[in-house]
Write a structure and sequence with these properties.
By secondary structure, this protein is mainly alpha-helical. It folds into three domains: about 1-420, no CATH class; about 425-570, Tetratricopeptide repeat domain (Serine Threonine Protein Phosphatase 5, Tetratricopeptide repeat); about 570-625, no CATH class. The chain is about 70% helix and about 0% strand. The chain has helices spanning about 1-5, 10-30, 45-50, 60-65, 75-90, 95-125, 130-145, 150-155, 160-180, 185-205, 210-220, 225-230, 235-260, 270-290, 310-325, 330-345, 365-385, 395-420, 425-435, 440-450, 455-465, 470-485, 490-500, 505-520, 520-535, 540-555, 555-570, 575-585, 590-605, 610-625. Helix 7 packs parallel to helix 18, helix 22 (about 470-485) runs antiparallel to helix 23 (about 490-500) and helix 25 (about 520-535) packs antiparallel against helix 26 (about 540-555). The radius of gyration is 29 Å and the shape is elongated.
Length: about 625
């Protein structure tokens, strides 16, 4: 029956309707996310895009670097490759990056729609073809419009979500299509499934759960016969689980190297496990009843964790698990949908503790099951008949309800797009909605730092480290703010704590050196720089910082030596040329040498337009006073 439904030749009219369905979903995505195309980069994008030199080289050597694993860094090379392609076309114009995100989301929604259709065919028996198509259309429209997806689309650093989503659902659609084929054609489809899931994992490693998803599907469809399928197609299953296990190992290594694994919530593994029940139900809540979407949430976990509310959360979750298992006897759809949701949010339940307990992006893939159930529910209302009502009453009711929900979702989506307009709008919204969020306060503090509003920056950063004492980045930023406001002792204290939390972050040590220099404690400032240079003798910035230190101390010859070494290491940076020119002009009264270094700086770094203009004015002024 599956093969006859899936492979039957379709009439031109039905093919046209199918294309119309895909066209409606694509158009809806374009309309809903049009107002995100003018958004700017946020300070959540800086490290990945704006300040990332890796994406600026699309040569073969650059691509090799993108796919190379680096310690203390994420491993998501497909995302990085997509940024590099964007940079080749758009450089640092955020419009192009947003356009790419919207297109990949559109492709994801089309894959989701096709997968809904195939899944409905495979899991719903004795149902008409038109019913399968309605489920695909209704579910696809709801998935496209759901406001929980805004973070994945409007946040440029979340490109990993839409890339993963596209390849993940492409793999699922191909797997369902393979079920309708035999022989070599089925083998080809399964090979494409493995390729797609590999690309999904290389976009975002949480796609390692894919074998669990298809295992849930097979149990739902075959009940007691699913083991036969594994035996008949064991090479596919072996390769699928090998890919997942390999990248699970890589993911754990990346998280350990980068400090992504945090202390247990509640101090023990058992307490941390109880927190995962909170995370599960709040992820479910994000899909069903949340209207206050935000870039950052606070999860209201009762303290101590062993309390009546936690007991309610645990029992509620276990009840849902029990009902879903029982439902396998009655309906395959609920069983599949519940366990699809659970499997796809499993990496984010904090069984292995990570810093963020709840985020919209965590349910991007999982929302598939919710929209599938909604599509089936609205279709059943559409087909319902009751003799006391006219034949068209329930059709009209179904259409009215789906339109109402689509309008609500669409308005929330377009509103949330505006929240992501820039760093200020994003974090002002998050702090207003969730004032106890570490992330919201930390990044609002960064916004105020960039605006030079140090008093407000300090207030938010102090709140961030109060909420999360091991937030070394906020402590580092707080040290910078204290240093800028002449609170050197407090600054040094924050830098030392931050170094204790993140010993391998050399930027914090550089900031500590600058703070010592500001305090006129030149000996300690030099000690820090010498320690760093012992590890990185060819790091140009360290040589430059040391030159500035010697210049301030009055050690002119030592400063000249350090600036010349900086030029040897980084010949296209204008700052050391400028500093050498200033030394020869103001300390050694050698105008000709000063001019020569200013000219060398202009030629070496012609793109540094503001600095180049400044030096040209200096040279012109020197020549006019001959």
């Amino acid at each position: 029956m599956e093969q006859s439904i899936g492979q039957a030749t379709e009439s031109p009219r039905r093919q046209f309707l199918r294309l119309g369905m895909y066209g409606m979903i694509a158009a809806l995505v374009g309309i809903l996310y049009f107002n995100s195309l003018g958004n700017q980069f946020t300070n959540w994008d800086d490290g990945m895009i704006y300040q990332n030199p890796v994406i600026r080289n699309l040569s073969w050597k650059g691509i090799q670097k993108i796919f190379s694993y680096e310690r203390s860094n994420t491993y998501q090379p497909i995302r990085m490759l997509s940024y590099a392609i964007d940079y080749a076309f758009w450089e640092l114009d955020p419009f192009g990056y947003h356009l790419t995100n919207v297109f990949f989301y559109m492709f994801t929604c089309l894959c989701v729609c096709f997968t809904f259709w195939k899944l409905s065919v495979h899991l719903r028996e004795n149902v008409s073809r038109s019913s399968h198509e309605r489920v695909a259309l209704l579910g696809g429209l709801l998935f496209a419009a759901h406001p929980v997806h805004v973070e994945a689309v409007a946040w440029l650093a979340a490109r990993k979500e839409v890339l993963q989503g596209f390849f993940f659902f492409l793999a699922f659609a191909l797997y369902l299509a393979a079920k309708e084929e035999i022989g070599r054609k089925r083998g080809l489809y399964l090979a494409l499934v493995l390729l797609s899931i590999l690309l999904a994992i290389l976009s975002k490693p949480s796609a390692i759960v894919f074998p669990g998803v298809i295992l849930v599907y097979e149990i739902a469809q075959r009940k007691d016969r699913w083991l036969d399928l594994i035996r008949h197609h064991w090479p596919f299953w072996v390769l699928a689980f090998f890919i997942s296990c390999l990248f699970t190992y890589i993911l754990m290594k990346v998280m350990l190297d980068a400090g992504g694994i945090k202390p247990y919530h509640g101090g023990t593994f058992f307490n941390n496990l109880l927190v995962s029940f909170y995370a599960f139900l709040y992820n479910l809540k994000l899909l069903i009843v949340t209207i206050n979407y935000s870039a950052s949430y606070t999860l209201p976990i009762s303290r101590p964790i062993l309390n009546p509310l936690t007991f309610v959360f645990v029992m509620s979750t276990l009840f849902l698990f029990g009902v879903s298992i029982w439902s396998l006897k009655k309906t395959k759809v609920f069983f599949f949908s519940f366990y699809f949701f659970w499997v796809t949010v499993l990496p984010y339940l904090n069984i292995i503790p990570i810093s963020t307990l709840l985020a919209d992006r965590y349910v991007f893939i999982a929302s598939f099951s919710y929209c599938f159930l909604l599509g089936i529910g609205f279709d059943q209302i559409y087909q319902f008949r009751y003799r006391q009502f006219s034949e068209g009453f329930f059709k009209l009711l179904s259409v009215s309800l789906i339109l109402f929900l689509l309008v609500i979702y669409s308005l929330l989506t377009m509103q949330q797009n505006r929240v992501w307009e820039n760093s200020y709008t994003l974090w002002a919204d998050a702090v207003e909605k969730y004032p106890e969020s570490n992330t919201a306060n930390a990044l609002m503090g960064v916004v105020y730092m960039e605006l030079g509003m140090d008093e407000k920056a300090a207030r938010h950063l102090e709140k961030a480290v109060q909420i999360l004492p091991y937030d070394y980045q906020s402590r580092n930023n707080l040290g910078i703010v204290y240093g800028r406001t002449d609170q050197s002792e407090k600054a040094i204290k924050e830098f030392i704590i931050a170094i204790g939390l993140k010993p391998d972050d050399d930027n914090i040590k550089i900031n500590l050196s600058v703070c010592y220099q500001r305090q006129k404690d030149y000996r300690k400032a030099e000690e820090v720089l010498n320690y760093l240079l012992s590890k990185h003798p060819r790091y140009a910035n360290l040589r430059y910082r040391k030159g500035l230190l010697y210049k301030e101390e009055g050690r002119v010859e030592d400063a000249i030596s350090e600036f010349k070494t900086t030029i040897e290491l980084a010949p296209n940076i204008i700052n050391p040329y400028e500093e050498l020119g200033n030394i020869y002009l103001n300390h050694l009264n050698d105008t000709e040498k000063a001019k020569s270094y200013f000219l060398k700086g202009i030629h070496a770094a012609s793109r540094a337009t503001s600095k180049v203009d400044e030096l040209r004015w200096v040279i012109q002024d020197l020549e006019s006073h001959r």
